[in-house]
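Hi, here's the filled form for the chain we discussed.

Project: internal
Contact: R.S.
Residues: 291
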Amino acid sequence: MYTWESITGPGSIDDLVADAHAAGHPDMNVRRVHDWIAKGLLDQPQLRTRHRGSDKAEHSASQRRLLLLLLDKRQQVAHLSALAQVPLAMWLWWDGYVPTRQAQRAWTTWVGRGRRSQEVAREGAAGLLEQVGHQLATPTARARFVRIIGELGNGKALTVRGRAELLDAVRDVMEPDTVFAASGLVRALGPAQTPMTVESVVNHVEALSIALGRTLDGKADAALLERARAVHRASMTDYLAQRGDLAAEAGELAGLFGEPTLQERFDQAGKQLLLVLGMELLHRRTRPHSR
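And the returned structure, exactly as it came back:
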């Protein structure tokens, strides 16, 4: 069977096609390789020059192996936008496999435009609702929560009025009146150091909205993405070191603090980068300007 170990060096686009065929994917061809390069699933080949003329451009051994991984993962996703999380995850977690120029294109592919970007927002809303929604929150409150956050998928800025409506929607699912109104209590989920409150969830959603807007405007440049990656790696290093203590303190949310599997790293790369990118942009917006 043709595997990663079968690849020992760089190769031309014809070698990539041959790799795919040898691995049991006869539908892969030169045109599709070019399409995947444009979408950031693969990187652009590097030109080779000789003393006399030039030769075909080459893809690195890492990119040839990435193609095999993409072909394997392709069977698990419905759209190429989801497949873009594979190079994104490799760029987020490991050095030497995916350059930032490729990650930029993969990021744009994952976010998409129009319906796709709205799907990203709705999926994020549904996942957040699962984390913070109280079991006694009404179906109406839950639907409103997902609708409001889903609408932010169009990249529009959150207005003062819109933020107030969002705050109300978050409170309705986190602190339903039937439980919290009479008591006057405030709900805080997770560990004592970083509890999830109504306000922190609103900030979370605002960060997602800002990141989507910046990406849709074409302003998520290489420097911004690399900054977000650095923040992500630093925070994950701290998280993994404290994971056991956080899980012990989290109570009903202890399951959120498990060590991520390789599959989870691939599946969650887009959402993680979206949040970190948004938090970085939100921090820049609120940071006082230096003189």
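Let me know if anything looks off before we file it.
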